[in-house]
Every structure is written in C-alpha cells, then in structure tokens.
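Reminder to self: tokens first, then the designed residues, so the page reads top to bottom the way the pipeline ran.
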C-alpha cells in the first residue's frame, strides 16, 4: 500500500540509511497498483464508483497565441460588480489520470530522529561583543506564557556599554545586540547581478564580509551559523535567556500572516552582520586612499536580492551563486591590497566542523556543506536548480504580478509565500533549501528572501492602506501557541529586538517608508523617495510593478484570470509534500523531474523533516495562474467553454510526499479547484489592474476527478484532518472586489 505518511516509512528509511550509508542511491518506487481506493473517509465527496478512464496526455491543437478571455473595452465607471457567470456546456466525466508510470524518484533526503544535542544556551552569552555594536543588558522579568522573556521592555534599566561587557556564563540574562541594520545612510539593496556589475567595490566587500561571518565561531550570535540557525535547526535560543521553548521548530513563521513581516528583521540581522564585518575588513587596509575607497564601499554594503521573476534574467539562478570560487581584493597581512581567488561564500556555506552539524538530525549531521540537487556523493548540481527554476518562469511572473492585485495584505502574503515555497523546492532539489529546518544555511536563501522582502515593500507602497490583519496563530520556537490564539500586527517577532530593547512587531514595519529608517531601500522603493509623499511613491512603485511583471497586459479592458487552487491540511502529510500542476504536457517522469516541461506551479510544504510529525493542523493553499499556460497553448479567445474544456482535459497533477508518489485518493484533505475572475486593466502605467468580479468556481471542470471539487464548500470551507472545517487564514475577507 502506498502511504503518504512519513511516520510509517521512517523506520524503513532509517534501515536503508544505516545499511547503505547516508548517500543512499535513489530508489525506485512501484506505482500504486490500485488507483481507485475505497472511500477511506466519510467526508470524501468524490464518486468512487465511476470507472477509471485513462486519458492519454495529448497536446491539444495549438492555435495562434491570442489574448486570454474576452477582451473588450469598458468604461471603469460603468463596470458592474457582479460576476460574469460563464455558461458551460456539458463536459464528459473523463478522469485525469493520476500518474500510473513506474518511476524512480529523486529521493529527497529523509530525516531520522532528531538528536537532542544542542549547543548549551550559556554559550550564547560568551559571544564576542564588538565595540562598534551597542550592547544592552536588559533585566530579567518573570516568565510569561510558556517561556521566559528576558528583557521585556517594561523595565527601562537598559545599559548601553561601549566596551566589552560580558555577562557571566551563569547569568540567566543574555547579553544581546539589537537588530538595527547598517548604520550609514539609506542605500538601496540591489539585484545581485546589478550590484556585481555596477558597484564592484561594494560587491567585493560583501563577499569578504560574508566569508568572514561564515568563518566566525559558531558561538557568535552574528555568525552565519547562528543567524541561519534562527530559522530552524539546531533549535537553540538566540539572544534569549532560558525558557520553555518549543524545540520542535525554529523561530520562523510560515503559513501565517506574519510570514513576510517576521523575515524582515531576520534579513536585517544578517545585513547588520555583513555591514559591520565589511567595515572591519575595510579598516585593515593601510594605504589611506585604499582604505577610504573600501570604507566607503563597506558603508554601502546591503543584502542583495535575487529577482526570480525578472523579465531579463528570468528565473535562472544568479551566476555568482553557482560559481565555486570568486576573485576579490583583500588586505594582506600588512594591510596592502592583494587580489586573491577565494572559496565563494555565495555558492555554499561550509560548516566549521562536525561539531557544528552534530545537533542536526540524520543525515544532516554528516553533511558539512550546503548543496543544491546534491548527487549521491553530495556534489552540488546547481545547474539543475537553475533549469528547474527556469521552467516555472512564465507562470511565476504572472503569480508575482497577481500578488500585487491582492485585496488584503494577508492574501498578498499567502500568494507571495506560495511562490516562495515552490522556489525552495525548485532550488533545493533535496539539498538544504528544500527544508525549512536547514534552508537558511544556504547563502542563496538570503538572496531569495531579500526578494520576498522587496515584494513586500513594493506591495506596501502600492497598497498603503492594507496590512497584516488578525489570523489564527502559528506556533514558533519562542511562541508556543495554545488553541485559538491569534497572530496580528502586534504579535512579538521573536527573537529580534529593536534599538530600545523592545521586540519587533509587524506594526513597526508599516508603512513602506519604515524600511528607509532601517537604512535600506530597493530600486522600486528607493531611498531617494524619502522626501516624497506616499502618493508619489505609490505612483512610482506601481509603474515599476507594471513594467517588470505586467508583460502580458492586454490593454485596456477586462479579461479573465484563470487559476487552479491547490489546498491541503498540512498536518495530513507529516514531513514534506509537493502537489505539482502541469498544463498541456508534463515531464516524462514527474517524480524525478517534477519541474520539467509543463510545470506551471505547485503547492509546496517545504519539508520540515522530523519536525513535521508535530505539524499543526492548518489549511494551506496556493493559487496557480493558468493564464501563461493558456496563452502558450493558444487557448485564448472569447469562448470560456473551450477554456474550461481544455483545462479539464489538459491539467494533470502529481503529488510527491517525502520523496514518494502519493495520490489524491490517499489523501483526505487535498483538493483542487479551478476558478476565474474578471480583471479590469486601464492600461495606464501608474494604475494596477483590479478585480471586478468575485472568483467563479468552475465545478464542472473538476467534479468527477479524484481530488477535484464538486461542491463549493470543499474549497471555501475546507475539511481539516479532524473532520472540522475552517476558512483558510488568508482567505478571510479576501474576495472583496473593488468598486
Ligand atoms: C457546467 O456549469 C454550467 C454553469 O454552471 C452548467 O450550466 C452546466 O450544466 C455544467 N455542466 C456540467 C456537466 O455539470
Ligand atoms: C557604525 O559602525 C562602524 C563600524 O562597524 C563604526 O566604526 C561606527 O562608529 C558606527 N557609527 C555610528 C554612528 O554608530
Ligand atoms: C471581515 O469582515 C467582517 C465584515 O465586514 C468584519 O466584521 C471582520 O472583522 C473582518 N475580519 C477581518 C479579519 O478583517
């Protein structure tokens, strides 16, 4: 029997690992011989009595590339706010085959038991304190719910020390450094390729700084090791005292309204570390002119980003992240500049020793460097990451653009998170990036998340009235949440403190101009706009969004946006899962090449390894735009019946759970639905398109298929593993249309 459940296969996997070493060869998995299972769950709504008809995957006639949906010019003032219901003809109840191929899988590394070894929290207090970073020693306060919160702001006795003040290693109160970013004036974070080309000195200092913090001792809170470790493993407190932490997960927030906001101070902490490291290196140059030049460059050091939806560089990995070495100018022993070729800190992170990885679960406790698409000998194959990314490019652009049309902040956050999740999978290929617990160790993680932060800043600029609204909470390392807890804009974003010692909250990160106060901007939310009005910023940023990601606009008029929504209760598959959608064609072997030809999007859990045995029950969904696929296959035109027919026939789905094939009929909560809605586009450069109808679900595109919905409730009010129903957190109030 095929099982999508990690727990039932864990033992087998562990046995395999121990007999063949950690670099187990990819295994072949038999396909499920019994595609149609008996109704396993009472609430399963599919009609399992229907005979299974396999439909060969055929490329439908490819017509000329036309516009999508009916395009006609209308005066926005007269736009009706009612949905245009499409009249659909009778569709045959043919099933889409859930794959029957015998395939090898790309075996995703499976985690064994998590070692209980951790770096003692006392080590935190021994970190070096730089005289250039203000160090505060806050008072200890009584424990609050679930954990001790040292240094809550209720007490004001915060001491600033300029010389190195170390707390004794027996103190319960850690010394900590607030997260304030760089200390020079505001500079824009640049696209990595642009940084390399246009400011080689800053790039030089960035590389040297990153090399330096990767070499810093594991005990240094601002080392690459500890900053990366905040996200997930090794599950140790960061600049927080003893407490009742949840050692099953990291501090990061996923599937939550706080996804975008939590990562903002997180990135700022790395930027701060890189900045000060760059300054320290620049100061080592002895010739005055050289020192002056590189101090100026170090002052500009900001985290660069990787724009994976950029129309020019598309979704390829930035070349610098794929090269093993890089040439730099650095101070030699006597401070003179020398040219040297060094191990590239943007290519991979090399752990300092086996002690560094000892706290990780098997097999990560033997892997001493980060890799993408590692082969059996743990060699890097970033070129596979690059081609996987590229095949999702066109739909990724549409999904990125659509995120800006979101009518609530939470929906925007969910859309960006969905795009982001699938990138973790496409880049990792079983390497660290595929796992929440380990992803932040790969340097590309930071460039990837910097882009997420940039999209957040752009959305804040273009939708200044929208921000985080209350939604059901997600537990983290320092915030174990009891049932019915709510996350909102005033939830503490542990473990990051502001200059005054208080915890960051999302509310501190709103509106868009707050990033300039943290001394960074983006080309689309530039530091140069600090003296302009929010309206001017809105106009400027909107123009940038339209130019960068609005390539497919057919102007002006109303068109139809087609989407497939994939949905699951994440608790149903402990470990990691991905549900892939293919349009028109699909890879010959989707299990070994899930991002191959035909890939248009996916719902990705970002495997959390053993951690996910305790995954909180929560509905996760992603909307994958079908428009680029429809356009590519020439399925445009004004006949929505045709479109639904194509979609019904040509969309296929593949589920991989913990490296193995899994099927909708094995799952209780996994569903997919197809909907469309009207979008009005004025064609003006400084105006974004907006929805003029609510989503209309095309039930007869999906009904009759295993996993496809038959009733609206299945997608609007989905079933969780315990049989209860809930509105997904990002969906609350999100379907409001512009009037
Ligand atoms: C498809 O939907 C349309 C519109 O709701 C409806 O008129 C039609 O009967 C449906 N067809 C099938 C096969 O359910
Ligand atoms: C900024 O940081 C640098 C080095 O990291 C330090 O030398 C300088 O004094 C700091 N400037 C301010 C204004 O804090
Ligand atoms: C959603 O809308 C309803 C009605 O407008 C309102 O009462 C409720 O507070 C809103 N919920 C959120 C989370 O914004």
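Designed residues (739 positions):
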């Amino acid at each position: 029997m095929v099982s999508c459940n990690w727990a039932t296969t864990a033992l087998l996997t562990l046995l395999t690992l121990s007999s063949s070493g950690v670099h187990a060869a990819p295994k072949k998995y038999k396909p499920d011989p019994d595609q149609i299972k008996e109704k396993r769950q009472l609430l399963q709504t599919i009609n399992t009595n229907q005979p299974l008809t396999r439909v060969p995957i055929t490329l439908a006639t490819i017509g000329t590339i036309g516009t999508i949906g009916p395009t006609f010019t209308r005066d926005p003032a007269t736009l009706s706010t009612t949905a245009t219901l499409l009249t659909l003809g009778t569709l045959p109840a043919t099933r889409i085959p859930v794959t029957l191929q015998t395939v090898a899988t790309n075996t995703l590394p499976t985690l064994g038991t998590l070692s209980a070894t951790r770096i003692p929290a006392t080590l935190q207090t021994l970190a070096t304190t730089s005289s250039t970073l203000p160090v505060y020693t806050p008072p200890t306060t009584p424990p609050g719910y679930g954990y001790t919160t040292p240094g809550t702001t209720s007490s004001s006795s915060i001491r600033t020390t300029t010389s190195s003040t170390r707390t004794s290693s027996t103190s319960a109160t850690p010394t900590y450094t607030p997260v304030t970013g760089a200390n020079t004036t505001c500079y824009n974070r640049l696209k990595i390729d642009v940084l390399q080309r246009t400011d080689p000195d800053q790039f030089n200092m960035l590389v040297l700084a990153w090399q330096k913090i990767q070499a810093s001792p594991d005990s240094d809170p601002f080392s690459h090791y500890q900053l990366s470790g905040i996200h997930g493993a090794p599950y140790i407190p960061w600049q927080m005292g003893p407490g009742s932490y949840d050692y099953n997960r990291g501090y990061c927030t996923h599937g939550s309204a706080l996804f975008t906001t939590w990562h903002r101070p997180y990135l700022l902490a790395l930027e701060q570390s890189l900045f000060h490291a760059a300054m320290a290196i620049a100061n080592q140059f002895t010739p005055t002119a050289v020192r002056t030049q590189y101090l100026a460059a170090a002052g500009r050091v900001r985290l660069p980003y990787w724009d994976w939806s950029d129309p020019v560089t598309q979704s390829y990995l930035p070349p610098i992240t794929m090269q093993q070495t890089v040439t730099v100018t650095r101070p030699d022993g006597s401070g003179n500049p020398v040219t040297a070729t060094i191990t590239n800190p943007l290519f991979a992170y090399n752990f300092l020793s086996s002690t560094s990885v000892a706290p990780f679960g098997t097999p990560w406790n033997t892997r001493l460097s980060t890799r993408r698409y590692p082969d059996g000998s743990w060699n890097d194959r970033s070129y596979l990451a690059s081609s996987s990314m590229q095949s999702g490019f066109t739909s990724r652009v549409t999904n990125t653009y659509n995120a800006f049309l979101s009518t609530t902040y939470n929906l925007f956050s969910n859309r960006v998170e969905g795009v982001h999740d699938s990138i973790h999978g496409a880049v990792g290929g079983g390497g660290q990036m595929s796992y929440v617990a380990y992803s932040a160790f790969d340097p590309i993680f930071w460039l990837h998340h910097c882009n997420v932060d940039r999209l957040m800043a752009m959305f804040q600029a273009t939708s200044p009235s929208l921000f985080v609204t209350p939604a059901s909470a997600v537990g983290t390392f320092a915030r174990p949440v009891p049932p019915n807890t709510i996350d909102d804009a005033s939830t503490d974003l542990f473990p990051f403190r502001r200059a005054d010692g208080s915890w960051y909250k999302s509310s501190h990160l709103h509106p868009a101009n707050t990033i300039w106060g943290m001394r960074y901007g983006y080309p689309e939310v530039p530091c140069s706009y600090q003296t302009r009005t929010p309206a001017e910023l809105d106009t400027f940023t909107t123009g940038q969004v339209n130019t960068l990601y609005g390539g497919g606009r057919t102007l002006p008029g109303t068109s139809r946006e087609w989407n497939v929504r994939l949905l699951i209760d994440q608790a149903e598959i402990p470990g990691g899962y991905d549900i892939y959608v293919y349009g028109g064609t699909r890879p010959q072997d989707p299990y070994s090449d899930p991002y191959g030809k035909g890939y248009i999007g996916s719902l990705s859990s970002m495997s959390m390894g053993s951690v996910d045995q305790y995954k909180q029950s929560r509905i996760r969904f992603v909307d994958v735009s079908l428009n680029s696929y429809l356009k590519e296959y020439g399925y445009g035109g004004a006949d929505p019946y045709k479109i639904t027919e194509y979609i019904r026939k040509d969309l296929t789905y593949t589920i991989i759970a913990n490296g193995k094939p899994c099927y909708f009929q094995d799952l209780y909560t996994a569903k997919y639905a197809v909907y469309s809605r009207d979008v009005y586009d004025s064609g003006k450069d400084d105006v974004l398109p907006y929805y003029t109808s609510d989503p209309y679900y095309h039930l007869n595109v999906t009904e009759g298929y295993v996993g496809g919905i038959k009733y609206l409730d299945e997608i609007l009010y989905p079933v969780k593993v315990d049989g209860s129903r809930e509105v997904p957190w990002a969906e609350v109030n999100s379907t409001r249309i512009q009037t």
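Confidence is low (pLDDT under 50) at residues 6-172, 609-613.
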